[in-house]
């Protein structure tokens, strides 16, 4: 009799319900409602514990985040199993969504609304109207406009905009978001930097209460903009989470736009299957703007501040600040500020003073291109082989020598030099420079020393 009384309650629960109860105590209520309420357990003949979930996305999320907890629950509830598997059963995604909605209402009213939804965080000035078109960015701009006009309905999915710092990648991502919201070409737009994505996911791991907004944000997204994905480099767990979301949204024809500081396939330690999927969309670069575009950017920026600058000033600044639009704008802001408070007004002298640290005519003669040509000639290869993306030995050494000499003989940054060498990463320039420096100090490398000395002799003549 005692045995019957004791067993009466548990026997009304299935083994999985017991496990669910166990899990419910270990995670936040919202997490449980979102990921565990609509699940079932089937133990197959071979002993595999198969967790049935509403869809593939949920299966992936649960497996990636809760497999250990489920095993623990099965063991605690004495469910024998030889392996664990997750099986999507045909139910609509909306089931999970509805549950998530309900949970959101009953739980966590204080959920931090970081960047999701119509209230997405967009910087006011970063629109297509304020973006100056030039040879260096026309492809990226055209692709950005296309996806903004018809998100998910272009061949550019994902669209990946890559290039050096300060060349307009964030501006373009933001402009897409602005446009899509203003013109209502999609419902939900999310802009997030990969650093924020990483932080939010890490937060979720620490405090499962945050799980609902973390995933829900992406479930509802029609247009997802992730800035600076190179930040995912070497972060395997984050890459997995990113891939789950990326894959789900693409399957649903939702638009994804990413930015990166280098060609995605050159991001170190990025999973091969992610890179493969990137190649299915459009990868388009933004390069440093040419003189004409730099002048147009300066004029437009000055105009937006209610100023018209003398042509000679615009030309002077644009001729000297080459690699980076951010720097160009920085000098302009300083110029307007200084000139406004000087007795002499908007003179060239003030521009000269401000650009003091920038390039001089002498360095102009020794441009990266010039050095590349001289090195290619010295090694008897075509200059285009230096920027080609090949690891062929005959180009590798001259390329490293040319990078080393560019670093030594110009004031260009590693970033700009890398871009001239076929859009290579700045870290490649650093590595090449270090290698040549070490080789030059190596007693066995007399041939290399002679070659470099010969080229440097000619550089001296030019400088
Ligand atoms: P990135 O994300 O590539 O580092 P940003 O998009 O932040 O660069 O651009 C740096 C600054 O330069 C921003 O203020 C941006 O508005 C401006 N900018 C870059 N390219 C252009 C352009 N083509 N026209 C107008 N402004 C630009
Ligand atoms: Mg940026």
Name of the CATH first level of the largest domain: Alpha Beta
Rg (C-alpha, Å): 29 Å
Please state the overall shape, judged from the principal axes of the Cα atoms. globular
| Mean pLDDT across all amino acids | 84
CATH homologous superfamily placement of the largest domain: P-loop containing nucleotide triphosphate hydrolases
Spans of at least 5 consecutive residues whose pLDDT stays below 50 are 1-10, 91-119, 359-363
What is the subunit organization of this protein?
Answer: single chain
Enumerate how many helices there are, as a single number: 22
Strand content: 5-15%
Strand-and-helix sequence, N→C? HHHEEHEHHEHEHHEHEHEHHHHHHHHHHH
How many strands appear in the DSSP assignment? Answer: 8
Structural features:
disordered N terminus, binds adenosine-5'-diphosphate, Rossmann fold, GMP Synthetase, Chain A, domain 3, 4 domains, 463 residues, Helicase, Ruva Protein, domain 3, globular, 3-stranded mixed beta sheet, binds magnesium ion, alpha/beta, single chain
Task: Write a structural description.
The chain is of the alpha/beta class. It has four domains: 14-106, GMP Synthetase, Chain A, domain 3 (2-Layer Sandwich), CATH 3.30.300; 138-285, P-loop containing nucleotide triphosphate hydrolases (Rossmann fold), CATH 3.40.50; 291-358, Helicase, Ruva Protein, domain 3, CATH 1.10.8; 364-462, DnaA protein, C-terminal DNA-binding domain (Chromosomal Replication Initiator Protein Dnaa, Chain: A), CATH 1.10.1750. The protein contains 22 helices and eight strands. The protein has helices spanning 2-8, 15-26, 29-35, 56-76, 93-106, 138-149, 169-182, 194-206, 211-219, 236-251, 272-278, 291-304, 311-320, 325-341, 348-354, 361-365, 368-379, 384-387, 393-409, 414-420, 426-440, 446-462; strands at residues 40-43, 48-53, 83-88, 159-162, 189-193, 223-227, 255-260, 282-285. A five-stranded parallel sheet has the order 5-6-7-4-8, sandwiched between helices. 39% of the residues are buried. Magnesium ion (MG) is lined by residues 169-170, 227-228. Adenosine-5'-diphosphate binds at residues 126, 130-132, 137, 165-171, 297, 325-326, 329.
